[in-house]
Amino acid sequence: MTLVWLSIGWVFAAVATAMLPMRHQYVPGISLMVAAPVLIVMLGQGYGWIYAVLALAAFVSMFRNPLRYFIARARGQKPEIPQ
């Protein structure tokens, strides 16, 4: 049950971060991106792989632009950063 509350807390933290101005989103956004895979793996272990896949789909949907940026950086490209 604690895992469910942690996941709900993560969602509320993500929503609160999304309401911040862009220049203030970086630090909480990166911490949420680091915490998400840990929660997804724990959800998969505790409740089954289908819930982990659903959580992964939600994570990729919410963080699609930062993930595109990190993929482009890994490929050696220089993507633009929003002002």
Give the secondary structure arrangement, pairings included:
Elements: H1 2-18, H2 26-47, H3 49-62, H4 64-74
Portion in strands: under 5%
Report how far apart the termini are.
Answer: 40 Å
Shape: globular
- pLDDT average, as an integer? 90
Query: Which percent range fits the helix content?
Result: over 70%
Query: Please, how many helices?
Result: 4
Radius of gyration: 14 Å
Q: What's the SSE pattern? A: HHHH
| Main beta sheet strand tally, sense and closure | none
How many strand segments?
Answer: 0
Instruction: Outline the low-pLDDT stretches.
Output: none
Task: Return the domain count.
Answer: 1
Oligomer: single chain
Helix/sheet category:
mainly alpha
Description:
This protein is mainly alpha-helical and 83 residues long. The chain has one domain. 77% of the residues lie in helices and 0% in strands. It contains four helices and no strands. The chain has helices spanning 2-18, 26-47, 49-62, 64-74. α1 packs antiparallel against α2 and α2 (26-47) runs antiparallel to α3 (49-62). The longest helix is centred in the middle third of the chain and has 22 residues, at 26-47. It is globular and about 40 Å long. The protein starts with a helix and ends in a 9-residue tail after the last helix.
